[in-house]
Amino acid sequence: MKKCSAHPNRLFTAVVRQHRVIRPRYQLLTLELDTDGSAAFASVKPGQFIEVDVSHLSLPQDKDIPAELLDSAQRNIMLRRPFSFSAVRHTGKSTEIDVSYHVIGPSTVRLMTLTAGDSLHLIGPLGNGFRIDPSRPIALLIAGGMGSPPIQHLAAYLRSQHPQIKVTAFVGARSLNELPFETGLHPDGGIDLPAFSAVQVPHAVATDDGSLGVKGFITQLVDKFLQSPQMQADKTILYACGPEPMLAAVSRLATKIGVPCQLSMERMMACGIGLCQSCAIKTRDSQAEDGWSYRLCCKDGPVLDGKDVIFDES
Ligand SMILES: Cc1cc2nc3c(=O)[nH]c(=O)nc-3n(C[C@H](O)[C@H](O)[C@H](O)COP(=O)(O)OP(=O)(O)OC[C@H]3O[C@@H](n4cnc5c(N)ncnc54)[C@H](O)[C@@H]3O)c2cc1C
Ligand code: FES
Which ligand 1 atom sits closest to the C-alpha of 54? Predict the structure, then answer.
C-alpha cells in the first residue's frame, strides 16, 4: 500500500469488525488495524485522533439518510475527517479501536454504510493527547456530548496505567438523545453508564433538559463537587473534552478553585498534520508581542492547558 509522504508509516488500513447503532444518529464502529497500524498504536494516548478517508464510500439509500442531511450529504468528500477513539484494545497480534460518531454531514452519512469486513484507510495516531500528572492523584474527567470518546478512553487508561489515581467522571449532553453512550440503571437506583462502570470509574450524568440524570449543565455538577469540603485543590486536576462553551466553563472553574485543567479542543481540520494552518487556536504567549499567538489544534493539540487557551468570550 502507498504510504503517506508527510507521515511515513502512519497511513493504515483498518477492517470493520463491528458497527452498532447506539441511538438514532449515534453509531459505534470497531476497527481492527493492520500490522503497521497496530504497531503505531502501541503507545497511543487518550486524546490523540485519527483522520479517516471516506472518499471511496457510497451514500446510503435516501430513505436511510436523515431528512435534513439529504442535500448536504451529496457533497463530494475531498478531505479526511478527524475522529477520536473511545477505546483501544491490544490483543496478541493486532489492535482494535472503537470510534463513536455522530451522523452530521456527508462523511458521517457515508460511514453509516460500513459493515463487518469492509476496509477503511486512516492516518494516526495524530496530535498530542492528555498528559497524565501523577502528582495530582485526584482526576476529574468531564465529557460533553460528542466530546465523550476521548474521556471514556482516558478513564480506562488511568485505571489500567495509573491505578493510584482516583478517577471520577462527569458526563453531560443536551438530552438523552445526544448522549453517545449506552445507559443502564445502577443497583443504587442511579444512572449507570457501562462505558465507565466497566472500568470501575464512578460517574455522574446531567442533561440540559433533564431527560437523563440531573437537569442542568454538567459543569454545575463539577462546580458543586469542587466546592465540597473534601475537595483537595492541591491534589486535583481536571481533564475535559466537549463543546467549546463547556470547555470555557471548565477553564473558569479551574481558575476559580486554583486547579490545573487540560482541554481537548476541536477545530475544523483539513490536513490534520500541521500543514494547512486551518485549525488555529488563540493562546496566551508571554513571548509574543501582543501576549498571544496561534497554536494548531492538530499538531500542538488537540489537548492544551486550559490556562493557555483564549476563549472568544474572554
Ligand atoms: C480532534 C477531533 C476529534 C473528533 N472526534 C470526533 C468523534 O470521535 N466523533 C465524532 O462524531 N466527531 C468527531 N469530531 C468531529 C468530526 O470530525 C466532524 O463531525 C466531521 O467533520 C463530520 O464530517 P461530515 O462530513 O459528516 O460533516 P461536515 O460537513 O464536515 O460537518 C457537518 C457540520 O458540522 C460542523 N463541524 C464539523 N467539524 C467541526 C468541528 N471540528 N468543529 C466545529 N464544527 C464542526 C461543520 O461546520 C458542518 O456544519 C472530531 C473533530 C476533531 C477536530
Ligand atoms: S488541520 Fe492543517 S494545520 Fe491543522
Answer: 25
pLDDT of 18-65, one tens digit each?
A: 999 999 899 999 999 999 889 889 889 999 999 999 999 999 999 999
Residue 87 and residue 174 in one domain: no
d(CA 7, CA 80) in angstroms, rounded, equals 14
Number of structural domains, the chain? 2
Q: Is 85 exposed, middle or buried, given 0-12, 13-18 or 19+ CB atoms closer than 10 A?
A: buried
Q: In this structure, are 119 and 147 located in the same domain?
A: no
Helix (H, G, I), strand (E, B) or coil at 210: coil
Report the distance separating Cα 133 and Cα 183, nearest Å: 30
State pTM to two decimals. Answer: 0.93
Asked if residue 245 has a cis previous peptide bond (ω within 30° of 0), the answer is no
Which ligand neighbours the alpha carbon of 145 most closely?
A: 1
- Cα separation, 54 vs 108, in Å, equals 9
| Probe residue for ligand 1, chosen from 75, 108, 297 as the CB with the greatest number of ligand atoms within 8 Å | 108
Pairing state of beta strands 236-241 and 261-264? Answer: parallel
Please check whether residues 95 and 51 belong to one and the same domain: yes
**DSSP reduced 3-state for 279:** coil
| 254 Cα to the center of ligand 1, angstroms | 27
Over the stretch 204-253, which tens digit does the pLDDT of each residue have? 999 999 999 999 999 999 999 999 888 899 999 999 999 999 999 999 99
> For residue 271, is it within any domain?
no
Mutate to test the pocket of ligand 2, among 271, 295, 300 (most ligand atoms within 8 A of CB): 271
Q: What is the number of the ligand 2 atom nearest to the C-alpha of 297?
A: 4
Averaged confidence pLDDT in the chain: 92
Rounded mean pLDDT, 173-178: 94
Write the CA distances from 100 to 50, 84, 277, integer angstroms: 12, 8, 26
Unique residue bearing C-alpha cell 508509516: 9
